[in-house]
């Protein structure tokens, strides 16, 4: 009996590892698939939609080279674009022209043009959300320039254009907005902030990359309401920085302020940034409190500020906190002017005080713009001032 039980256990332990081994997950071989990493969608002047897919070209990739391309072979990626009335039909036409089956499992970036963003991006979101192999974690970008310009951008440091844009997100240079964020936006307000990119022509790039001299840059952010872009207002690059603070999408930052002693520039590195938002009831009225904390050290200084003086450091700290409070307040003010609650304060209100939200939800846009007080408190502590008590410039002059 014991021997039979031992044999049974041995058999189970032998078979069990085989059950967790992964086999072919699809009937289609990888060599027969095409994996677009970026999709661009725009509405043309004639009313037609144009969709372009950016594909890596495995036959042109050379791992031994940093850029992954060979001047004698060509770029390691390409764009295929088609026009039509509906996105689904356009993707079908692209598939008919492709030699491989298109699989969207690697598509991480979706860039939308100005005209379509103004008219509404719901068709794009709807198509993506219905594709089982299209990740809703794909990042959304908007550009007010011609979407075609993205094909003219060189890949100097990265292998693909899509990687450049995902680096913007990873390095906290712009707001992180995904298809999932759009789907989860409050159906009553449908407000969301999307990062905006632009293309600048740089002559020095033309020397090394003929015909591809457009450099991608962050151009602030656009506000979306009910699936449409608010055309007359957007966040500047400086206000985008405030948005990153509000949404807790950065944990470190560098800020330059004027010294309280001589108005010369002092640069401060801020770490461990934490921002919390909560609704409160004051005088039977709803209000919001934003509290942001962190610690900092002196990065560089052109000022004669004596950092061994505790009072002088406190004044510098107060100046820093007031500067950041003003930045956050200006960012909120821009969204209020557009009556667009892109920071989803309505969600906080719904979670904390659902009965109050039920009364305000039908008029939330107006209430947010004109009646909602937001108390902002930034408390950054400067705890390191560096080796020199005064700037090296001041020491040399002395």
Write the layout of secondary structure elements.
Blueprint: H1 2-19, E1 33-34, E2 38-43, E3 49-56, E4 77-84, H2 87-97, E5 101-102, E6 109-113, H3 114-119, H4 122-130, E7 139-143, H5 161-170, H6 179-184, E8 191-201, H7 203-208, E9 214-225, E10 228-235, H8 237-246, E11 252-258, E12 265-282, E13 285-301, H9 310-337, H10 345-352, H11 354-360, H12 364-370, E14 374-384, H13 392-397
Parallel strand pairs: 1-5, 2-6, 6-7, 7-8, 13-14
Antiparallel strand pairs: 2-3, 3-4, 8-9, 9-10, 11-12, 12-13
Helix pairs in contact: 8-9, 9-12, 10-11
Family: Belongs to the GerABKC lipoprotein family.
InterPro entries: GerAC_N (IPR057336), Spore_GerAC-like (IPR008844), Spore_GerAC-like_C (IPR046953), Spore_GerAC_C_sf (IPR038501)
Subcellular location: Membrane
How far apart are the termini?
95 Å
Q: Average pLDDT across residues?
A: 84
- Helices, by number, come to 13
Biggest sheet statistics: 8 strands, mixed
Shape label: globular
Membrane topology: Lipid-anchor
Keywords: Germination, Lipoprotein, Membrane, Palmitate, Signal
Protein name: Spore germination protein YfkR
Subcellular location: Membrane
